[in-house]
Amino acid sequence: MSEDGSRGPQKPSIYDVARAAGVSHMTVSRVLNGHPNIRESTRSRVLTAIDEMQYTRSSIARALATNRTMRIGVLVDSPVQWGPNSTLRAIESAARARHYSVSSFATSDEDAETIAAGIADLVAQGIDALCVIAPRSSALELFREHGSNMPTLVIKAEPDPHLHTVGVDQYAGARMAVRHLIDLGHREIAHASGPLDWYDARARSHGWRDELRAAGLREGRLVQGDWTSDTGYEIGLSGQLDGSTAVFAGNDQTALGLVHAFTDRGIRVPDDVSIIGFDDLPETRHFLPPLTTVRQDFTALGALALRLLMAAIDGEDTPQHELIAPHLIVRDSTSGSLHRP
């Protein structure tokens, strides 16, 4: 690192790193950009030099050299909810691993002007691509009216003929949950769903219904909620699910409210009624009883989304629709039915 008395210590350049590592500056650039065709010994030597010299890339120089800002824009609807928030964090983590930064714009309003303002704000920051986390059908329809021409990916479990989409397979996860209950002997399986304006809630409801039909069982009771534990508690107190030996809750928070309500009413979980959730929140293993649920792999979702966005930026063909498989996590809130026919 050079030093000039009039200007103080100077930051190391990519050429300084190259000299220290004994490679060309182009090799350093390839390492920084995650190029796969680099020997591990060379990659390690370059990364060691970067650490020792405390080298930081100039975003301005990088943009001039590559004609890219190395920045992804994320428009996220309903960011306080677990799914959208976890997806955003996963994309941020995946972006950092590939030396990209993320600018996000959050909205919870069904307002065309807000969606348009969000897109304009992100585009003004010089993003290379746009990721849209729009879990509600109403929000996605507004986005369609104001979409950008840049590479765009939508987080959505359902395929879309006009958009490139990726998501966790909500439908398969729901069928997995209901199949678990059927295998335990349950025949009266209710569903406390999320708001059916949400794509995930609709897919989970369809999965619940189709799995019951495939098993030759009649459709149980469906009560729509709003993803919250408070509403789950109200549903459990209301008696609307009485007569069911098992409940597939639309998410873990709804399941928590149901467990609370049933306990207050003297209905034992899982002795009298089994409950299964969806999401695998970090706290679910500490519910009383610990909750059987369906886990969404947001880390894998973020990595897939980032990979497809980068491919689109490079002008490569990308799949129209890809899904991440969910996983069933069996704990103590489900057991064999006491009311088998």
TrEMBL record:
Q: Name one GO molecular function term.
A: DNA binding
CDD domains the record matches: HTH_LacI, PBP1_LacI
Q: Which domain of life is it from?
A: Bacteria
Q: Does the keyword Isomerase apply?
A: no
Tell whether DNA-binding is among the UniProt keywords. yes
Which keywords are on file for this protein?
DNA-binding, Transcription, Transcription regulation
Q: Which InterPro entries match?
A: HTH_LacI, LacI/GalR-like_sensor, Lambda_DNA-bd_dom_sf, Peripla_BP_I
Q: Which SUPFAM superfamilies match?
A: lambda repressor-like DNA-binding domains, Periplasmic binding protein-like I
Give every HTH lacI-type domain span. 12-66
Quote the protein name from its UniProt record: LacI family DNA-binding transcriptional regulator
Where does this protein come from, organism-wise?
A: Microbacterium flavum
